[in-house]
């Protein structure tokens, strides 16, 4: 019996969550420890679960939605009335929007590096070693970068909460019901329509919401950490003798 | 050839863009290409198989689907994204031409190895002046035209951005007027509005970039006309001051911030 050749690897890489991960994880280097935990939770417990499990649960959401009628079009219309936007699409949009504020930080870091390069060149230190050093050094989260980071965290929290609210508005109670009653045209009278896999969908919805809550808590913890760190640094510096006082005077006059 | 390959091409050309151009590229890939691939394609996946008409007449569904959906939204958006990305390749081609020309010049004059020269040429970032400015501005104008053109085409073909639940069709071979039902109309409307919004944001970014480039060109035109020779001398002083200060500084704030404060103090 001839052996079947091994399956060829997919020659065309797709634009998908993997390439998105590559883009977002680059920002990781400039995050705090809590930020890195947040990113891992996002990718492992949300994106991975979405791709490997949730998408197959919702895969037959339309074909498995059955109404107790043979009237053509009734299925489509009732499905559209009760599911204006699928959970999967809402989660995909939520994950994309929640990850993008991190790119604000990446842009700020790139801008800072560009300014540093210019200063180095002005001072005559333009050998490739120094310029490489700028690229690889880790930026401290101070000054304007601190503000950018805080704003990105606040946007993340706002997006997460907004999506949880939208979910609640569209699917009250976060529970997937087994049976919906529909009387939109062209359904004759009121017909019973049955949702496919309601319990499994409820389980995944609750799971994704719980992880979303955990991510919100991580973001809040990170904000508190950064604010606390900045306050303690400010107090420490204000307490310092000559250098701190001189800097404060310059800052005030600037 | 796929979206990541296009991304790789555009990122290469992006090195010579302004910050607005880099923001535009991020918005394009994250909010348009990414959303199209991971979300929108699955919404439109069953658009023909779930297009149901209230008749058993064979061929009626096919004919009615074809009448109301001459080109699918997904295909229109793919074409739009390809056309909108293409002008950036103009810039990439011009940069490649400049590198080639400079390489030929450098080959005659320099004593370094040719490979080293080529690497230096490839890594440098060209300032957006002269012919590159015109190429860049043309690419922005074309981007705007393509974006507006495709949005207008989508609006005209589908009579607005909303997807109706029901369409009525009387093409042969359908007997009389039949009701045909579209699958997931609300979800499709949501995604159409989202993509139209992202497209508008991209147009705004392109307009802003164009205004910025024009303003920068006008500004540099005026400053070269009215430049004062004595100012050049004092700027040299400041550069030396910055250089002398760019030595390791004591603990506390970073050397960079120290330089900025001292520089502004002495200006």
Automatic annotation (TrEMBL), chain A:
GO terms for biological process: cell-cell signaling. The chain crosses the membrane at residues 37-54, 91-110, 144-171, 204-227. It is a multi-pass membrane protein. Pfam families: Connexin (PF00029). InterPro entries: Connexin, Connexin_CCC, Connexin_CS, Connexin_N, Connexin_N_sf. Its main location: other. One of its GO terms (molecular function) is gap junction channel activity. Keywords: Cell junction, Cell membrane, Gap junction, Membrane, Transmembrane, Transmembrane helix. The keyword Ribonucleoprotein does not apply. It is found in: Cell junction, Gap junction; Cell membrane. Residues 56-89 form the Connexin N-terminal domain. One of its GO terms (cellular component) is connexin complex. Residues 159-226 form the Connexin cysteine-rich domain. Signal peptide: none annotated. It comes from the Eukaryota. One gap junction consists of a cluster of closely packed pairs of transmembrane channels, the connexons, through which materials of low MW diffuse from one cell to a neighboring cell. A connexon is composed of a hexamer of connexins. Belongs to the connexin family. This is Gap junction protein. It comes from Amphilophus citrinellus (Midas cichlid).
Automatic annotation (TrEMBL), chain B:
GO terms for molecular function: gap junction channel activity. The chain crosses the membrane at residues 24-44, 74-97, 131-158, 190-215. It is a multi-pass membrane protein. Residues 42-75 form the Connexin N-terminal domain. It is found in: Cell junction, Gap junction; Cell membrane. PROSITE patterns: CONNEXINS_1, CONNEXINS_2. Residues 146-213 form the Connexin cysteine-rich domain. GO terms for biological process: cell-cell signaling; gap junction-mediated intercellular transport; sensory perception of sound. Pfam families: Connexin (PF00029). SMART domains: CNX (SM00037), Connexin_CCC (SM01089). GO terms for cellular component: connexin complex. Keywords: Cell junction, Cell membrane, Gap junction, Hearing, Membrane, Transmembrane, Transmembrane helix. InterPro entries: Connexin, Connexin_CCC, Connexin_CS, Connexin_N, Connexin_N_sf. One gap junction consists of a cluster of closely packed pairs of transmembrane channels, the connexons, through which materials of low MW diffuse from one cell to a neighboring cell. Belongs to the connexin family. A connexon is composed of a hexamer of connexins. This is Gap junction protein.
């Amino acid at each position: 019996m001839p052996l079947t050749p091994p399956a060829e690897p997919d020659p065309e890489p797709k634009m998908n969550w993997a390439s998105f991960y590559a883009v977002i994880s680059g920002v990781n280097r400039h995050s705090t420890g809590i930020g890195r935990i947040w990113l891992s939770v996002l990718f492992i417990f949300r994106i991975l679960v979405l791709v490997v499990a949730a998408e197959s649960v919702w895969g037959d959401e339309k074909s498995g939605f059955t109404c107790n009628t043979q009237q053509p079009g009734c299925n489509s219309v009732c499905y559209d009335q009760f599911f204006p936007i699928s959970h999967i699409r809402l989660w995909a949009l939520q994950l994309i929007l929640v990850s993008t504020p991190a790119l604000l930080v990446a842009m700020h870091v790139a801008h800072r590096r560009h300014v540093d390069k210019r200063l180095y060149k002005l001072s005559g230190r333009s050998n490739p070693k120094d310029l490489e050093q700028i690229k690889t050094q880790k930026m401290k989260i101070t000054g304007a970068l601190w503000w950018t980071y805080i704003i990105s965290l606040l946007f993340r929290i706002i997006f997460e909460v907004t999506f949880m609210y939208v979910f609640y508005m569209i699917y009250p109670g976060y529970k997937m019901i087994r049976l919906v009653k529909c009387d939109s045209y062209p359904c004759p009278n009121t017909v019973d329509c049955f949702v496919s896999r309601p319990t499994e969908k409820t389980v995944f919805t609750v799971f994704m919401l719980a992880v979303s809550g955990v991510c919100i808590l991580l973001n809040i913890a990170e904000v508190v950490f950064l604010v606390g760190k900045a306050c303690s640094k400010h107090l420490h510096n204000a307490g310092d003798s000559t250098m701190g006082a001189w800097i404060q005077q310059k800052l005030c006059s600037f | 050839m796929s979206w990541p390959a296009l991304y790789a091409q555009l990122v290469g050309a992006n090195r010579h863009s302004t910050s607005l151009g880099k923001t535009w590229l991020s918005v394009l890939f994250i909010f348009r290409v990414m959303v199209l691939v991971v979300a929108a394609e699955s919404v439109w996946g069953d658009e023909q198989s779930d297009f149901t008409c209230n008749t058993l007449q064979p061929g009626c569904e096919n004919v009615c689907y074809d009448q109301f959906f001459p080109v699918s939204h997904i295909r229109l958006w793919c074409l739009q994204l390809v056309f909108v990305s293409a002008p950036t390749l103009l810039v990439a081609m011009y940069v490649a031409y400049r590198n080639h020309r400079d390489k030929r010049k450098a080959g005659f004059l320099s004593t370094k190895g040719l490979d080293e020269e080529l690497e230096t040429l490839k890594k440098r970032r060209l300032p957006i002046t002269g012919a590159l400015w015109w190429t860049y501005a043309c690419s922005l104008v074309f981007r705007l035209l393509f974006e507006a053109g495709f949005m207008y085409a989508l609006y005209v073909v589908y009579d607005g951005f909303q997807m109706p639940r029901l369409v009525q069709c009387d093409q042969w071979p359908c007997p009389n007027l039949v009701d045909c039902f579209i699958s997931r109309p609300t979800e499709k409307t949501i995604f159409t509005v989202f993509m139209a919004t992202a497209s508008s944001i991209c147009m705004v970014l392109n307009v802003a970039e164009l205004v910025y480039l024009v303003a920068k060109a006008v500004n540099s035109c005026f400053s070269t006309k009215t430049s004062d020779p004595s100012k050049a001398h004092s700027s040299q002083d400041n550069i030396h001051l910055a250089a002398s200060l760019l030595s390791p500084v004591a603990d506390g704030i970073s050397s960079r911030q120290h330089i900025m404060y001292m520089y502004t103090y002495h200006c």
